[in-house]
Structure formats: C-alpha cells, structure tokens
Design a protein that fits this description.
Blueprint (H helix, E strand, L loop, with lengths): L1 E4 L2 H22 L5 H23 L3 E5 L3 E4 L8 E4 L5 E4 L4 E5 L5 E5 L7 H16 L11
Antiparallel strand pairs: 1-2, 2-3, 3-4, 5-6, 6-7
Length: about 150
C-alpha cells in the first residue's frame, strides 16, 4: 500500500486553528474559580496541543493505493471514496491540477492534486501504473494528458 499525505499548506491551517482553540480554552479557564472547570479546560487545551503536534509530524492521508483499489480523500479534505482499479473506465489529468477518474455512466470522481502538493506527479504516475497493472496491459499513458 502506498499512502500520500496532506500537503503542509493545508495541514498548517488545521494546526493554527487547533492552537487558536487551545488558546481560547486557556483564556476562558482564567475566568473560573471552580477547580474542576479550570482543570477540564486545561486538559482540553493540552489535548488540542497534542493533536496539533500529531498533525505536524503525521499529516492525515489523502490517497491510499493498493493492488486492488484506490481511496481518495480523507480528514481535512473531501469525503473518502474507494474505487476498484477494474471499475475505472478512463482517467484524465486537467490543466488546473485535477485528476478525473471515470467509473462509467455519469460517475466521475474528481480529486484535486494540490492536496498532495509536491508529490502530485508521483501520485499520478502511481495511479497510471496501477491501472495498467490491473488491466494487464498498457492502457493508460500519463504523457498523453500533459
């Protein structure tokens, strides 16, 4: 399984918001005399700081590729969608950085490649390679879309 994680520019926004909420919780804790309320707010703020640290060191996955399927989306992005490689009818890469996976009929999954940042070309190449492997021949060529 290959995992592609959320680009730092999106992760930093989530970290900033998390730390802002932690700061607000600490500020609100100064308004109470009740030890239990203050302790609860401090524990809440501590948990938020831990979450921010986890986001910094391990951003959430946005694409997971296995031999059988691809899962696109995840926390902080779009709702996750699983697609089997055999279900993909066509794939295309748009100039604005969107990857379109056609599942046949009227179903097209659109995935913004800016979620993976600098690994967008690697993800695209990996998707094409896995589609070709699943179909048993060279069906998709990424150089045709660029």
């Amino acid at each position: 399984m290959t995992t592609y994680r959320l680009d730092r520019r999106f992760t930093l926004q989530a970290i900033g918001l998390t730390l802002l909420i932690a700061g607000i919780a600490l500020a609100v804790s100064m308004m109470f005399d009740n030890t239990w309320v203050v302790t609860a707010l401090w524990v809440f703020a501590l948990l938020l700081v831990v979450r921010a640290g986890l986001l910094w060191f391990r951003p959430p996955p946005v694409a997971r590729l296995t031999a059988d399927q691809v899962t696109l989306g995840g926390p902080l992005t779009v709702r996750p969608v699983q697609i089997g490689w055999k279900d993909v009818q066509n794939v295309s890469l748009k100039d604005d950085g969107r990857l379109l996976l056609d599942r046949g009929g009227d179903t097209v999954v659109v995935f913004p490649l800016h979620f993976v940042g600098g690994r967008a070309r690697e993800l695209t190449r990996d998707i094409y390679d896995r589609l070709n492997e699943a179909n048993g021949y060279r069906r998709f060529d990424p150089s045709a879309d660029q």
